Every structure is written in structure tokens, then in C-alpha cells.
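User: Please run a holo structure prediction.
Assistant: Happy to. Please share the sequence and the ligand.
User: Here you go; the ligand is copper (II) ion.
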Amino acid sequence: MPSFRPTWLLATLLLCAAPPTLCADHGASYRIAERRIAAKPPTLRVSAGDVVTIDWRTDETVRLHLHGYDIELTVQPSAPGQMRLLAHTPGRYPLSAHGFGAAAGAHAGGHAETTLMYLEVLPR
Ligand SMILES: [Cu+2]
């Protein structure tokens, strides 16, 4: 549930303390329209150790889930949202919608997930 943990902050500080070129801030913003991401590559590629910020806008209430890093975020048309994480573990992680509209408030369960994009964390 929390999108930022003190241990990640500590890890970032340790990782980024010495060589200035090693770590980077990675920002991306996505707009969901008609239940999908339009006009954007479906994969966000970053390097391990990067701090990643993903901004979300939507035309319909949606509950987002970044698998692997296990970050959940509900975004509304009137209330854009942000995910922020330290990309500590390489891999390919699906980011899915757990429900749109009225279903966005429902608990995870019977309804289907829709994968919107992937976060790819490359090893250094
Ligand atoms: Cu999920």
C-alpha cells in the first residue's frame, strides 16, 4: 500500500552517495483514456537504482496495481495520482488496472485485470 518506504530512501542514498552518474531520476507520465494508454510505448525502461516517478491521469476512475513492487493507486479524473519507487530489483513488471468506474472501488477478486503497460528494470 505505501508507495515509498524509508528503507528505499536509505538504499537510494547509499546507492547514489558516491558516483553521481550511477543513479538517475526517471519521470514518466501516462494518460488513460477509454481504458487504455494511448500514444505511448507500452514499456517504461529504467535501470536498477533509479528513482522512478510515474504520473497518472485518467478519464475514468481506475485502480492501478504495479505488480512486483506491489504499489496500488486509485486515480480519478479530478484527482491525478503519482507512483514513486526505487527500482531496486531488475525484472519486467506488469502494471494493471484492477477495475474501472464503479468496479475501481471493489476489492480485488472476481473481476478481470487489464494490463496497461510494463515497467522494465534493467540490471546495471
Ligand atoms: Cu494486479
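The first strand starts at residue 25 and ends at 33.
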